[in-house]
Structure formats: structure tokens, C-alpha cells
């Protein structure tokens, strides 16, 4: 199959670019002809909340070859991108959607190209965690020219049906990221991070945003005894001031280790290998790429019962679910988790890894496209 793939790719960083790169490789390895099209400008700098949109020299990101042609805020580039994709003569255009901001640019390309081939989108989010006035019209505009959709959680599938009732979709679980390296020795990893080698270790990982509930985790950690330590690893989107205040007021502040920075790809293994559990205390969610990373490193998860998180986190098997984003419930769940036998979680996670490969996801995507009218 001849596939045009429109998404963010290398040299941009982040989970969506990593997802695109892994899927691109899997499709190529299965013998399909794939061409990647990405942004010449993804966000204007003043709209980007982090320090950089690009990978750095410490990242292990796959250098996916792509045409850097689409400027998210330049309509002339929308036409140019569509023209280049049409010249490639694909059987299908695959897009990714994760933020309504990209509705006009990617939606226009899909509209033009869709007159000549099938157009399918992989939906990471439909309704955003942090709403903006343009979300609804931009999302509608993006979805309209697509023929079908791939969703990765029941929550996203449900959100899609609030906009689009008739077009086909397929629910396929988020594959496990496997490009961050292998599992390392736990004590050696803790030594690298300069944290206690013996304490039970809780990890919060990923970009820090208000909806992710880090404040709840910090407060819950304050209820725990001296046998625990908390590792916070990720770049803050916005201000870290409120979190810093909570840490300074926390009775366990000496055992809270902050790595408030962008974590390069080659560092990811160290953080997960050092940890006993990864906690997602989210106030809202659809699905999270962090779950895929954590399960790759065979680290169980504790997450709040929001969005599609519980679809991969099976109670007593791959982790534990907290009924709601509340400090005492989070504390109790973490305590109960550490009272269980960790080998039980590891066994179930290893079984799950077999079913959630990129090859399987790519195979399912192609079969879905082939069945479209």
C-alpha cells in the first residue's frame, strides 16, 4: 500500500512525533511504501508553552525522513502541502489529531487530498483537556473531510461520536513505546539519579500541566511514611511555583526529588527502571502515552478513573485504579499497591506487551483501510 502520513515527525519532539515515527517504521517493515509529511512550523514560538519544540542531541528519536512543508498558520502552505501529497499519488492519507489548533491546517489538506484517495485519522484526543473558544469549530472542520478514524480508547471513541455518528472507526489500543531502551538495574538507576537505593519509589513522569494532578500526588505523598520517595520528572508547561510551594510545605519534602526539565529519550530508561510504580493522578484524560512507556519498562501504574486510562490499567494485574482524583483515595491506593506482590503485576504486564506491538497496530490499520469502501 502507498501511504502518505501527515503528522508531526522528527525533528519535533513529544509523544505524537514519537508515535508517528514508530508507526512509520512498522509500516515500512511490513513492506508498505510510506512518505512522511510534517511541519515547517508547528507552533509559533509565542504559543508554545515549553522550552523547545525540537529534539536535542541527547534524544534517541528516530530520524524519520519527512517533507517539512506545512506551516500551521500559513494558509498558502496548506495548498502546497496538499499539492505535494497529491503528487505522491497515495492510496491513503493518514493523519494524526491531538489538538484543535491543527484543525484548519490539517483539515484543509485532508479536504483537498481526499478528493483523490481515502483519508483516515488516528485520533489521540477529540475534546481537549484545556478548552479554548475555537475547539468545536476547528475540530468539526478537521473531522469532516476524513473517511474514517482510529481511536485508542473508549473515551476518545465516545468523544468522536459527539461530532460524527456515521463514519466508520476502529478502536485499537495505544502500542507500547519501545525506542527508549531496555530495562536497567533498579539500584544502579537510583544511583544515577542520586536518590535512595532502598526506598519504595513512586514516579510522576511527563509534561507537567494542571489537569495532570501533580498537586494531588504531592499532597498524598505527604501522608506516607518514611519508607517512600517520590520522583517528579518532566518539564512544566506554565509555572512550577504552586508545586514548589506544596513541596516546601510537605512533611516528606526531603524525599521528594524534582527533575523539572525535559527528559531526553536516552534518560527515560533510568527514571522508569528506578521506579516501583508510575502514578497518573489526572483530573481528566483520554489516554496517555506515559502508560505505554511505563508498561514497556514493566512498571505498574496507578491512575485515576478518568478517560481511557483504565482500559490498559487492570486492577490487580497491570496496576490499580483510583476511584476519583482525591488526595486520600490516592494515598490509600498507593499504600494498598505496595502491600501486594510486585511479581504478579510484572507477569501480567509481560503478557500484555506481546499484544501491543507496533507491528500489530500497523497491521490492523492497513486491514481497516483496505475494508473501507
Automatic annotation (TrEMBL):
Protein name (Swiss-Prot/TrEMBL): Glycosyltransferase
Domain spans labelled Glycosyltransferase subfamily 4-like N-terminal: 14-168
Signal peptide: none
Keywords: Transferase
Protein's UniProt keywords contain Transferase: yes
Keyword Ribonucleoprotein: no
Entries under InterPro entries matching the protein: Glyco_trans_1, Glyco_trans_4-like_N
An example molecular function term from Gene Ontology annotations: glycosyltransferase activity
Origin superkingdom: Bacteria
Organism for this UniProt entry: Flammeovirga aprica JL-4
Amino acid at each position: 500500500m502507498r501511504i502518505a502520513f501527515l503528522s508531526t515527525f522528527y525533528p519535533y519532539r513529544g509523544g505524537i512525533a514519537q508515535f508517528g515515527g514508530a508507526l512509520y517504521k512498522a509500516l515500512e517493515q511490513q513492506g508498505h511504501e510510506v512518505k512522511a509529511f510534517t511541519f515547517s512550523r508547528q507552533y509559533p514560538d509565542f504559543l508554545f508553552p515549553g522550552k523547545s519544540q525540537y529534539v536535542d542531541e541527547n534524544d534517541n528519536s528516530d530520524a524519520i525522513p519527512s517533507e517539512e512543508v506545512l506551516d500551521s498558520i500559513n494558509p498558502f502552505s496548506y495548498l502546497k502541502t496538499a499539492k505535494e501529497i497529491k503528487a505522491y499519488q497515495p492510496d491513503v492519507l493518514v493523519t494524526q489529531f491531538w489538538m484543535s489548533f491543527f484543525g484548519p491546517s490539517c483539515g484543509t489538506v485532508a479536504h483537498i487530498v481526499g478528493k483523490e484517495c481515502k483519508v483516515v485519522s488516528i485520533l489521540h484526543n477529540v475534546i481537549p483537556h484545556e478548552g479554548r473558544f475555537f475547539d468545536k469549530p476547528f475540530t468539526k472542520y478537521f473531522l469532516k473531510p476524513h473517511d474514517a478514524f482510529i481511536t485508542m480508547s473508549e473515551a476518545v471513541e465516545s468523544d468522536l461520536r459527539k461530532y460524527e455518528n456515521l463514519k466508520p472507526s476502529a478502536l485499537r489500543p495505544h502500542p507500547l513505546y519501545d525506542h527508549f531502551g531496555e530495562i536497567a538495574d533498579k539500584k544502579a538507576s537510583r544511583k544515577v539519579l542520586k536518590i535512595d537505593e532502598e526506598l519504595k519509589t513512586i514516579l510522576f513522569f511527563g509534561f507537567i500541566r494542571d489537569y495532570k494532578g501533580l498537586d494531588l500526588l504531592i499532597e498524598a505523598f505527604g501522608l506516607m511514611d518514611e519508607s517512600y520517595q517520590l520522583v517528579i520528572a518532566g518539564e512544566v508547561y506554565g509555572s512550577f511555583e504552586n508545586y514548589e510551594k506544596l513541596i516546601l510545605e510537605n512533611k516528606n519534602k526531603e524525599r521528594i526529588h524534582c527533575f523539572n526539565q525535559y527528559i531526553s529519550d536516552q534518560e527515560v530508561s533510568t527514571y522508569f527502571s528506578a521506579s516501583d510504580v508510575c502514578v497518573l493522578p489526572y483530573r481528566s484524560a483520554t489516554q496517555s502515552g506515559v502508560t505505554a512507556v511505563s508498561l514497556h519498562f514493566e512498571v505498574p501504574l496507578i491512575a485515576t478513573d478518568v478517560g481511557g486510562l483504565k482500559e490498559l490499567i487492570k486492577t490487580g494485574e497491570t496496576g490499580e485504579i483510583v476511584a476519583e482524583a482525591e488526595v486520600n483515595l490516592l494515598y490509600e491506593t498507593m499504600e494498598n499497591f505496595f502491600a501486594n506482590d510486585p511479581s504478579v503485576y510484572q507477569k501480567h504486564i509481560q503478557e500484555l506487551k506481546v499484544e501491543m506491538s507496533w507491528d500489530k497496530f500497523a497491521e490492523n490499520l492497513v486491514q481497516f483501510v483496505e475494508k473501507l469502501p
